[in-house]
Amino acid sequence: MKILLAGASGAVGRPLIARLLREGHEVWGMVRRAENLPVIQALGASPVEGDALDRAGMFALLDRVRPDVVIDQLTSLPSSPFDLAQRLPADRVLRLEGGGNLHDAARAVGVRRYIQQSCGFYLKGEGGLATEESPLRTDAPGGIGESARMYEALEKRVLSDGVMEGVALRYGFFYGPRTWYWPDGAFSLHVRKGEVPVIGVGRGMFSFIHVDDAAQATAAALRRLGEEAVYYQNDLSGASNQRARSFLGLEPKNTPWLEEI
Ligand SMILES: NC(=O)c1ccc[n+]([C@@H]2O[C@H](COP(=O)([O-])OP(=O)(O)OC[C@H]3O[C@@H](n4cnc5c(N)ncnc54)[C@H](OP(=O)(O)O)[C@@H]3O)[C@@H](O)[C@H]2O)c1
């Protein structure tokens, strides 16, 4: 499959390139900064430079690459969670508007499936762990509520497209190389400096996923059947031609596939 990966130089993008190539796909890795093009090249993918916020640029890029599948891993997050509040507005613009440009451009060139990064840690578990059925915490205070509403909008965009098959992957907090939660990551450094207090009884539960595991699941989402394909193969009832036989004299003869069996 030919895949365009947006956010290719990020914490998930890099292991995802390796995984997709191992599984035999042709991967085009999109980055915004030219200095990251050699990174993509070194990982074995075809590098392509593009700013998701440049709508015309996205249409031109998609027209040039013409992938079967687009994977949106666009983020604009800081290297330290302590700077999150300042960066969230720009991150939201990138995901909503930049991702929207990418999504529209993908549809325009006939992309078959669009895989969207979403979030599993702002879900509302009712008295236990949240599941796929759980709603996002859109009524949470401040930035959490705003982010949850953003993820809700992203999910709606891909799942209700009607033309492309949409998949929204609700990842946990990423850990692994290049993340906040790796031994050299910003969160770990803040903990070691004693800068992360436990607030109240500290009973909030963090669900993590290693970036390599996220890459494995994302690669699997390329092939998993969409809801409609499952429905076709399991729920269609067929239709009787009895009435057409008796009223119209229908005698179906053109069934060559039956003769070949
Ligand atoms: N959901 C999450 O991703 C998430 C959640 C919580 C915490 N974090 C933490 O945030 C940190 C960074 O995560 P990350 O790897 O996702 O971010 P990242 O390393 O900054 O990667 C973001 C990717 O998006 C691309 N990009 C950014 N702006 C773009 C634009 N306008 N047009 C096209 N591409 C653009 C970047 O390309 P360039 O590099 O070329 O700019 C890069 O490939 C990690 O430490 C992680 O632990 C992430």
UniProtKB/TrEMBL annotation:
GO terms for cellular component: cytoplasm. Signal peptide: none annotated. GO terms for molecular function: aldehyde dehydrogenase (NAD+) activity. InterPro entries: Epimerase_deHydtase (IPR001509), NAD(P)-bd_dom_sf (IPR036291), NAD(P)-dependent_oxidoreduct (IPR051783). Pfam families: Epimerase. Residues 3-224 form the NAD-dependent epimerase/dehydratase domain. This is Steroid protein related protein.
